[in-house]
Amino acid sequence: MAIFQGFNGMMPTPDKVAQVAAVPYDVVNSEEAAELAKDNPLSFLRVSRPEIELEPGIDLYSDPVYAKAAENFKRLIKEAPLVEDKEKNLYVYSLKMGNHLQIGIAGAASVEDYNNNIIKKHEKTRKDKEDDRARHVMDLRSHTGPVFLTYRDNPNIDRIVDEITAEPPYFSFVAADGIEHKLWKAGEKRSRRLSELFEQEVPCFYIADGHHRAASASRSGIACKAQNPNHTGKEDYNYFLAVTFPSNQLRILAYNRVVKDLNGRTRDAFLAEISEKFHVEKTTDQTPSKLSEICMYLDHEWYKLTPKFDTAGLGVIEKLDVSILQDNLLGPVLGIDDPRTSKRIDFVGGIRGTKELIRLVDSGKAAVAFSMYPTTLDQLMDIADAGKIMPPKSTWFEPKLRDGLVVHNF
Asked: What are the Cα distances from residue 222, in Å, to 64, 134, 138, 215, 258?
């Protein structure tokens, strides 16, 4: 069963939280981070993307970058300030984006659970990104950005969360992007009860987003254990910061694709070749209405693609819409053999809508675009349960959790 426990969170004060909170480090590049943090000395991006205070073009994995992160973290603790909770709490965290509300619990997840696959993965990690986050964690001695987890719905946990959210939050603010964030302290008694329910009634967690953060936490835990001759397993480095949500509250958006050329084919030849595997019909729809349906934008026109073959008998990976597209069109027709490394394909998060797909094709930056139906939570969990790995760029979660609301030091 899953371990999820309270900890002494370090947080900004309610009057400063809106200044401190920042988007995750991996959804912005250096230029975007610098623009977001401009004129805000308390932005947590100065910790998570410290290169924005160094000379342009610096190697992001160089010693001065990590030294600046540690320096800025210490400064932020003092100047914001960030204050350590005297109680070991779980923290209830809600995000509201338009009409969509999701309420999760921030706490300390177990490195051992991650290593033993009680925290289940569905994505490959890259060594360079693991190295980066592991170094960041060890130099700061803190998990500053949460891993985004989910679990199958549990009414007993829901009842306690409902009780907590009926009370005034510890802080509440609306970020510049219009997303409302609220956080409550569960209190020691309710924190213990929630931890008991997770351990008794939740068999596993699933990583929704944050595979590199989780992998780096595992590596830092192993490193700290090796450095501690009196290791007991109870030390804070055996746990990492996570926010976990019931699966029925999460929203996955599509992860769309654009390809820069037609692999030497004319428009008509391309349409004829893909018609061997797909029913191709013109449409006014720009987004699919169901699974096993793909919308394609080509030469100022939208097309609906539906497989001519039976998808019901395919495996859990092969029946994903992103796999159907990859295995039957992107690979054999357009020559995108490895979408992880190919320079001819780009991925566009569904939050940007189909206007971005149209813009890229109409401008000539891409030859064709594919609007996908979102991968479902059931598909994600089925793949993780089977110990399989999703194709790259299969899921896009919104809204994004904020860094800096609460950090887990060790």
From this structure: 25, 11, 11, 11, 40
H/E segment holding residue 222: helix 211-227
| Residue 172 near residue 181, CB atoms below 8 Å | yes
Looking at residue 340, its pLDDT comes to 87
The phi, psi pair for 355, rounded to 5°, reads -60, -35
Q: Retrieve residue 70's tokens.
A: 């540690």
* Burial of 353 (C-beta count, 10 Å sphere; 0-12/13-18/19+): middle
Position of tokens 């998990």? 143
> How far apart are alpha carbons 29 and 386 in whole angstroms?
34
Residue 167 CA from chain centroid, whole number: 29
Give the pLDDT confidence score for residue 139 in this predicted structure. 98
- Residue 130's pLDDT is 95
- Number of neighbouring beta carbons within 10 Å of residue 47: 28
Question: How far apart (Å, rounded) are the C-alpha atoms in residues 342 and 138?
Answer: 33
Residue 142 tokens, joined: 């803190």
Environment class of residue 57 by beta-carbon count within 10 Å: exposed (0-12), middle (13-18) or buried (19+)? Answer: exposed
d(CA 205, CA 4): 10
Write down how long the chain is: 410
- Tokens linked to 363: 């401008």
d(CA 145, CA 410): 14
pTM: 0.91
Q: Among candidates 206, 335, 204, 176, which has minimal Cα distance to 263?
A: 335
Cα 306 to the chain's mean position, in Å?
29
Mean pLDDT by 10 residues, the chain (410 residues): 97 98 95 97 98 97 98 98 97 97 98 98 93 97 98 98 98 97 98 98 97 97 97 97 97 96 98 98 98 98 98 95 98 96 95 96 98 96 95 93 98
